[in-house]
């Protein structure tokens, strides 16, 4: 076999199926010949490791890192689901979590809620179960419970052929056809073996290889993209690259969606693992830097509003601080909810909310005279892209 042929079949090979189409059968990881970690990839790996380490340290400086983490999990859920075509925003998700009825909420918000639940379920299970086929199937079941795709055997490996391509395409004109169903259990078993092998490659390279391999196997009839992106978080956590899951790579994948798919296809068609890993490592570094800046901005914002509360609320400052601390977890709120939090009168809670609106901590978002709803505006703006913000 010449060098060109060797490289093109490095990730696997296309095999003609009895029905006439060509499906891709992935080769086991690690790639042969091995990934070239010299030159550019060495630089990118060093930069990504450094950026990830800075992020890990920045999160630990926050007064309550777990609240920051919960918002990052939600943000990742929104972005990863949007890649698959959902319309729900971060504000839609938060309102749904707070059980606040909103006629404008897209029906697919349940899919985003499921993503949050799947993420939290997986992170909890990591304490007792390593990343494995068993865990992946559990996550898939959580992800598809009660939503579109729920009829497509949640938690079960597919027993029929699937394919990837534009909406409405068939096997005949698909962009990519993953391995036939009878090959899926073996391919996943080999992936699991790679995840637990001795002497693995550098951790971020290991995560990048695993994500691409999972997406190539495409073991379920629906939800493969979301499960594959969840897998990145679980692997980063299992390897202790992050003490807390605050890296949402879906932000990067969504921003560079066309290149994301091209790089994955480049692995399959040309064995270009180096091209995919360069893209992946750039994403880790870019998103880590963004998240580090967000952590610093949260600290500045919190101190700014604590000072405003002391200056403007006088004797009510203690209650103002209590509300702000609660808002980091539940950033969309009603006057009734504030009354529950503080155990004060309706008039007192109304007055307090109005004063928090005056200093810019809260913003009313319904425009109604009754049943009003408020958002912790300066905090949510740190997590939202401009297109997501409502007037």
- The share of residues in extended strands comes to under 5%
Number of strands: 5
Tell me the major beta sheet.
Answer: 3 strands, antiparallel
Shape: elongated
Quickly count the helices: 16
Q: pLDDT under 50 segments (min length 5)?
A: 1-5, 386-391
The domain count comes to 2
Domain Fic/DOC N-terminal: 43-123
Protein name: Fic family protein
InterPro entries: Fic/DOC_N, Fido, Fido-like_dom_sf, Fido_containing, SoFic-like
Pfam family, one: Fic
Please characterize this protein's 3D structure:
It is a single chain. With 391 residues, the protein is mainly alpha-helical. The protein folds into two domains: 3-293, Fic-like fold, CATH 1.10.3290.10; 314-388, Orthogonal Bundle (Arc Repressor Mutant, subunit A). Helix content is 57%, strand content 4%. The chain has helices spanning 3-8, 39-60, 65-83, 90-97, 109-125, 133-144, 184-195, 203-217, 224-238, 250-255, 257-270, 273-313, 317-327, 335-342, 346-358, 377-380, and strands at residues 12-16, 22-26, 332-333, 363-364, 374-375. Strands 3-5-4 form a three-stranded antiparallel β-sheet. The protein is elongated. The protein starts with a helix and ends in an 11-residue tail after the last helix.
């Amino acid at each position: 076999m010449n060098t060109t042929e060797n490289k093109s079949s490095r990730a696997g090979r296309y095999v003609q199926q009895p029905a006439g189409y060509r499906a891709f059968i992935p080769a086991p990881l690690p790639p042969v010949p091995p990934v070239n970690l010299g030159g550019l990839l060495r630089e990118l790996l060093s930069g990504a490791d450094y950026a990830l380490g800075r992020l890990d340290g920045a999160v630990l400086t926050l007064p309550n890192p777990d609240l920051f983490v919960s918002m990052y999990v939600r943000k990742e859920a929104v972005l990863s689901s949007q890649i698959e075509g959902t319309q729900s925003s971060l504000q839609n998700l938060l309102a749904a979590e707070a059980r606040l009825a909103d006629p404008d909420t897209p029906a697919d918000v349940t899919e985003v809620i499921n993503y949050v639940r799947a993420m939290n379920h997986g992170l909890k299970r990591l304490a007792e179960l390593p990343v494995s086929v068993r865990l992946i199937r559990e996550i898939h079941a959580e992800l598809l419970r009660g939503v579109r795709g729920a009829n497509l055997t949640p938690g079960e490996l597919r027993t029929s052929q699937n394919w990837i391509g534009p909406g409405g395409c068939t096997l005949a004109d698909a962009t990519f056809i993953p391995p036939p169903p009878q090959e899926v259990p073996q391919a996943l078993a080999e992936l699991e073996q790679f995840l637990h092998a001795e002497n693995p490659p550098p951790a971020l390279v290991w995560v990048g290889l695993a994500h691409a391999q999972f997406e190539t196997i495409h073991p379920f009839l629906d939800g493969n993209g979301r499960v594959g992106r969840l897998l990145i978080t679980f692997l980063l956590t299992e390897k202790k690259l992050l003490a807390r899951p605050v890296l949402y790579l879906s932000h990067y994948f969504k921003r560079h969606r066309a290149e994301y798919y091209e790089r994955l296809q480049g692995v399959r068609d040309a064995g270009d693992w180096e091209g995919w890993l360069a893209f992946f490592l750039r994403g880790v570094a870019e998103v880590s830097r963004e998240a580090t800046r967000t952590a610093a901005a949260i600290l500045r914002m919190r101190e700014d509003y604590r000072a405003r509360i002391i200056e403007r609320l006088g004797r009510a400052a203690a209650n103002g601080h209590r509300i702000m601390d609660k808002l980091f977890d539940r950033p969309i709120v009603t006057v009734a909810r504030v009354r529950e939090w503080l155990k004060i009168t309706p008039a007192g809670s109304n007055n307090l909310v109005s004063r928090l609106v005056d200093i810019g901590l809260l913003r009313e978002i319904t425009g109604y005279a009754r049943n009003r709803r408020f958002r912790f505006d300066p905090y949510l703006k740190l997590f939202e892209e401009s297109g997501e913000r409502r007037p």
